[in-house]
Amino acid sequence: MSEKYPINLWVNEERYEKLQKAGLAAMCQEMLAGLKCIQVYCNEAQKDKILKVFPTAKFDSATTKSIELLPRQVKDKIFDLVVQKQSIDIMDEFLKSC
Amino acid sequence: MAEIGHGGKEIKERILEPAEAKKRIQGLKQYPIRSQLANEVIGIAYGFFSPLEGFMGKADVEAVCKKMRLKDGKTVWSIPIVFDMSNEEIAQYGVKPGASIVLTYTGNPMALFEIEEVYEYDKKSLAKDVYGTDEAKHPGCARTYAYKDKFVGGKITLVNRPKINEPFTPYFLPPLQLRKIFKEKGWKRIVAHQTRNVPHTGHEWLMKGAWFQTYGELPMDKPYVGVLVNAIIGEKRKGDYIDEAIILTQDELRKSGYFGDHNHLTSLTFWDMRYAGPREAVFHAALRTNLGLTHHMFGRDHAGVGTYYGPYDAHRLLESLQGEINIVPVYSENWLYCPHCGEITSESLCNHKKEWQKFSGTLIRSIVQDGVKPPRLIFRPEVFDLVLECAEKYGFGSPFVDEEYLKKRTPVFVMPPLA
Ligand SMILES: [Zn+2]
Fold it and tell me: How close is the Cα of A30 to the center of ligand 1, in Å?
């Protein structure tokens, strides 16, 4: 299986409600002292494209192996797409719009 | 009573009274300097860099590079403090031994520079000695290679006091002032926390752990030990937390009661980080000795960058200098959240290894960036709110440094016109 690189979408109460409605609440995991997070995954090519399109983003190779520090609006957009598609498999669709 | 600083020398501020200053700079050529040099002028004049009295001559630079000592062969010093000029500038400003010029910053006179020496130094060899590499992608090497043709050595005396802008004003506490405050507080031991971060609870516990380590055998009848958060304020890189957020949130830990006046104080030092790892750690030790501190926290890969230094290189170098530096190193370990313990704990305390949730700086920043409030065990709500407030007030909407911040921010200090 090829590598998967997560983007962490942090989930507060408001986001949690939206995820519940979309039937995705069970996909949330607890990352830090109960702070919830839902992950969408990129493959190698998608990861490279994200890092290229959003130069502030950083691949945290040391600790979490995740893609971090995407601008807030970008993360909001990804989250909205997750809720809209009721799926976390949305990166292809998201990247089409970049 | 004399205040003794690093190297056993008395700390003396090198600052002229206004009337005297006016006389001394009359007719001298005025040379504008960039922020790095202005930061270092302050470091020299207020005694942060004691026993240095000016920018280094060649013998000092050579001794620092080759032996990690000043030219006296005794005083430990790890990073060259040099003043660079181009050949054209040297000719234009009549820079030669015996001459003096006035250094200006933000358009006004800052310091008298009494020139003793103009010399060349091989930058590649300097980089190799100080940074252990000559790769241009190491930020310290890059800074070295950006120096102009020649170095100028000589004594520095401030002719004018800088105006520290808000919100930094209360945090500019030079060595003599800081030492007075420590006496008033009755602290017998003070431990330095070097930072360029907004604190999460992992950082908070680093400080608390260091406080315990420092307290040692002292009695508990009165508070005898303080933590000094000494924030390094200097050149910013994109993606760093903005300076305002760093200094204010560090102090917020005291204001919101996670610490108190009896054991916590925040101040700043102007310094452009060299990321020299072990050598930078030694420099920090000298600097904090001058601030009047007795202990200094050193974490893993202190002041390192990339993979240039091993996690414990700085600790080993400090060990090898015991007896020569007058500050006790306090080595800190990694703090983390353990869901089993339900608390912040450390790698050497808790044994629920499989359950550990480690702090990653990047992860915390990503949470802050998303504006999602983390649990108070991870990030204090007062600190979180203040970060967002700072983003609005000082960061043009972001708590992290970006192009706009670099262009438009209010400078931390300016030189006012000579009174
Ligand atoms: Zn535990």
Answer: 16
Report yes or no for ipTM above 0.90.
no
Residue pointed to by tokens 């009337």: B19
Within 13 Å and on the Cβ side, how many CA atoms surround B111?
A: 28
Burial label, B341 (beta-carbon count in 10 A; 0-12, 13-18, 19+): middle
**Residues B85, B88: Cα–Cα separation, whole Å:** 8
* A88: contact with B, CB 8 A cutoff: no
Q: What is the tens place of the pLDDT at every residue in B157-194? A: 999 999 999 999 999 999 999 999 999 999 999 999 99
Tokens of A63: 């600790």
Q: Report CB contact under 8 Å: A60, B362.
A: yes
Question: B119 Cβ partners below 8 Å, 6+ apart?
Answer: B57, B58, B150, B151, B153
Is the backbone of residue B30 left (phi > 0), alpha (psi -120 to 50) or beta?
A: beta
B342, pLDDT greater than 80: yes
- Of B240, B370, B380, B406, which to mutate for an interface test with A (greatest number of A Cβ within 10 Å)? B370
Query: Is the pTM for the entire model greater than 0.90?
Result: yes
What is the rounded CA–CA span in Å between residue A45 and residue A51? 10
- Residues from chain A contacting residue B377 (CB–CB below 8 Å): 33
For residue range B241-292, what is the model confidence (pLDDT) as tens digits? 999 999 999 999 999 999 999 999 999 999 999 999 999 999 999 999 999 9
Token pair, residue B316, equals 């080993």
Instruction: Report the alpha-carbon distance of residue A27 to residue A88 in Å, rounded.
Output: 9
Q: How far is CA B153 from the centre of its chain?
A: 22
pLDDT on residue B363: 83
Chain B interface test: which of A5, A10, A31, A32 (most B C-beta within 10 Å): A32
Which helix (DSSP H) or strand (DSSP E) does residue B273 occupy? none
| Closest listed residue to residue B291, CA positions, set B169, B178, B172 | B178
Question: Are the beta carbons of B115 and B109 closer than 8 angstroms?
Answer: no
Query: Which is the CATH superfamily of the domain at B169-413?
Result: HUPs (3.40.50.620)
Q: Does domain B6-161 have CATH number 3.10.400.10?
A: yes
CB-based contact B372 A35, cutoff 8 Å: yes
Query: Domain residue spans in chain B?
Result: 6-161, 169-413
CB distance B358–A63 less than 8 Å?
yes
